[in-house]
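Pipeline run #58 for the internal structure catalog. This entry was flagged by the ingest filter as a single-chain record with no existing model, so it goes straight to prediction. Upstream metadata was stripped on purpose; only the residue string is passed forward. Reviewer on rotation: M.T. Logging verbosity set to normal.
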Amino acid sequence: MASVEIRLQSATFLPLLIAVFTLPILLHAAPSVPTPMVAHWTFDDAFGTRCRDSSGNSWDAVPADARNAGVTRVEGVFGDAMRFSGRHRLHVPEGPGFRDVHAISLSAWVRPEKWDKYNEIFRKEDGATRVLFSFQNEGSILSLGLNIGGYIECDAKTDPEALLDGNWHHCAATFDGSAMRVFLDGKEIGVSKRTGTITAEGNASGCIGSSNGGECFQGMMDDVRIYATALAGEDIAALHRSGQKALVRRSEPIAGNEPTVGKELLAHWPFNERGTSAVIHDVSTGKPEAIKTSQTSARLRGVHGHAMEFQGEPRLPVRLPLAAPTLPAISFSAWTRPTELRGYREIFRQECAERLLFSFQGNGTILSLGLNVNGYVECDATVRPADLTDGRWHHCAATFDGQTTMPST
């Protein structure tokens, strides 16, 4: 079986046929831990001026910029999440309150997109009595900072490149009166012995994802929690497992009711997973076959059903059940909504001696079908790029019947 890559830059792409659209819903409820909470921001409320604190303590977070600059709602681990970009300040005016907190736990799901020197998850900047939970040194450290008889940080080493893999990661930190601990993806990665009580005084605003609008986290964040107690390692692991289960559920395929044409399918990727996922399914045999990809890709509204959004230079390898020399005829079909068509933009490509190619070329002026038919040959059809980047969906298809190649839109 030949290895295949699909590449499409900065475009939305729904391969093959039509499906019934179903909006993503809250697929897996955020877990509850029966213990006192300081604050809990789920980001599942309709975005406006407030991110509700679901702990019951009314420490709602609000964007400092009335235009919500740098802060948008996206699909998360549990329901919705927050995406931070550029400069932003999502703050809790004069809160949360930590005066009577003698032990603490912080927990958050993050999906970073880039690193700066400092990247805050949560910070309440009251000088030497600050409360801090952040990535530092370009993502190479995950740190908990508290005043326990003087300000101290527990710095745990992390792999910044591994954290930029496009997947969600669970971060947590605790202090129980005798030790500060830092956790990543359910496992303890750092500990500092420190006996004492927390001093966290002052009226500074707590900030989610920044330090008063600086040291801004870039990427997505979900389910930010602060407990007024130290969670045990088993509790942290349970929070991580619950998120993993929610993410697996997002990878499940759902029925799309795509039309059929009564012909045998070689492969069919409808991208009708429930939500953002690193898994796609080939449904050509009637029994979905899961294919794990190298990164998580967003799902959004397609023609009928979900579509996959491609940004940057994603690598989406798949496999065909037959080698090209065994095919007497072939057809390609895809719905596409490109945002730009500079250079070459592949819809499908198998790069080998028996190359299979279906792509936009010449800055979007050509739609091409390429096959090895007694030697490699391409059938180039002239198209207008302005017609294809108009924000609408366009159906692209190409066929070879043993005699003639025919691409069309």
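catalog note: The two ends are 29 Å apart (CA to CA).
catalog note: Residues 3-22+254-408 form one domain.
status: ready for reviewer M.T.
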